[in-house]
Write a structure and sequence with these properties.
The chain has 113 residues and is an all-beta fold. It is built from no helices and eleven strands. The strands form two sheets. Strands 2, 4, 5, 6, 9, 10 and 11 form a seven-stranded mixed sheet that branches. A four-stranded antiparallel sheet has the order 1-3-8-7, with no helix packed on it. Strand 5 and strand 6 form a beta hairpin. The N and C termini lie far apart (40 Å).
């Protein structure tokens, strides 16, 4: 069956960087749109980045120019490089495959002041 497994979360100081990874099994990310979402306590889940099968990317203003989504088709893995992190970025980050509506288990990102 299809599985998405995230890794790379942790605790980082404001201004620091983290790189999240999402490795898929049972599906080919090359033919899917992959995305990262996050959900902070008391907040709605929000899209933070997406990348289409053609390589087009999309970011909300809150992370634009700080976060970068990329993929390695050979490794069937999508990444989220997060730079200049802010305390407001603290959330559980989830990997998503649009076709099939698959979700990973989430990885915690905590940014301290």
């Amino acid at each position: 069956q299809v599985r998405l497994v995230e890794s790379g979360g942790g605790l980082v100081q404001a201004g620091g960087s983290l790189r999240l990874s999402c490795t898929a099994s049972g599906m080919n990310i090359r033919i899917n749109t992959m995305a990262w979402y996050r959900q902070a306590p008391g907040e709605q889940r929000e899209l933070v980045a997406s990348i289409s099968s053609g390589g087009s990317t999309n970011y909300p203003d809150s992370v634009k120019d700080r976060f970068t989504i990329s993929r390695d088709n050979a490794k069937n893995t999508v990444y989220l490089q997060m730079n200049s992190l802010k305390p407001g970025d603290t959330a559980v980050y989830y990997c998503n495959a649009r076709v099939g509506r698959y979700w990973g288990q989430g990885t915690q990102v905590t940014v301290s002041s």
